Amino acid sequence: MVVVSGQLEDRGTTDDAMSSSDAEDELIEPATPTPTNAGRTLLFMLPQLPEVIPLNVGGMGFTTRLSTLLRYEDTMLAAMFSGRHYVPTDAEGRYFIDRDGTYFGDILNFLRCGDLPPQERVKMVYKEAQYYSIGPLLDILDKMQPLTGEKVRQAFLDLMPYYKDHLERIIDIGKHRAIQRKARFAKLKVCVFKEEMPITPYECPQFNALRFERSESESKLFEHHCEVDVSFGPWEAVADVYDLLHCIVTDLSERGIAVEHQCIGVCDKHLINHYYCKRPIYEFKITWW
Ligand SMILES: [Zn+2]
């Protein structure tokens, strides 16, 4: 039974965007009579929490021991069920957390016995562990696939400072082009080149030697913008053009955008003397509906 002051009842419950640092602050603190609210506070008494806790997480029911929720200090659950805060209950008396409960079972299993989620749930459980600020679980998931793989991939993508902007540009151009033409598909020209390779047909055999001997002032002569919608490159890494194309397709598909690509030749723009741009050009086809 909780009797609270009028002032306290007006305050909200836990916030969706709660982070680890403010988890404690955001929860409703019991009202301590102060000179300003003492008059209005008739009685304040927090209930004794039971040993077995029934939970309603976004409509999904769970049952666990109080000790499980208190397993690690500094987590949002430990703060919520510390006995120092008011936790709302549903019509059946279950403690209510206004959060999608799909992955809450994975969180509980970790708190119960250190069980880890299967690989396909790791990404989503990580998000939940962030919400409930469960540091030990975050540390372990961080070292699991696919999160580790994502870090390795990101280290490569960090070489391209405009990678994200370029993705947005692909989406924007594709959208406008399809709307303008009332089309189901949109086609874009995208240049993806790992290194500069302006060569003449005669130079092919010595291409590697040429590339490394070229001075900086000479390479300036080859700088230009290919006539494409978006251009990625150059970069210095083992990962090649196909790896970057894989990243682009994966990241667009994460945004729900289906894209196919094929190489449609090289830029072939005349640069200087007998030099032509040999950067590969890809046609991206976005299917909107
Ligand atoms: Zn070019």
Automatic annotation (TrEMBL):
GO terms for biological process: membrane hyperpolarization; protein homooligomerization. Its main location: membrane. It holds the Pfam family KCTD_C. GO terms for cellular component: cytosol; plasma membrane. The gene is kctd7.L. Residues 1-34 are annotated as: Disordered. It comes from the Eukaryota. Keywords: Cell membrane, Cytoplasm, Membrane. SMART domains: BTB. It is found in: Cell membrane; Cytoplasm, Cytosol. This is BTB/POZ domain-containing protein KCTD7. Residues 51-149 form the BTB domain. The lineage of its organism: Eukaryota, Metazoa, Chordata, Craniata, Vertebrata.
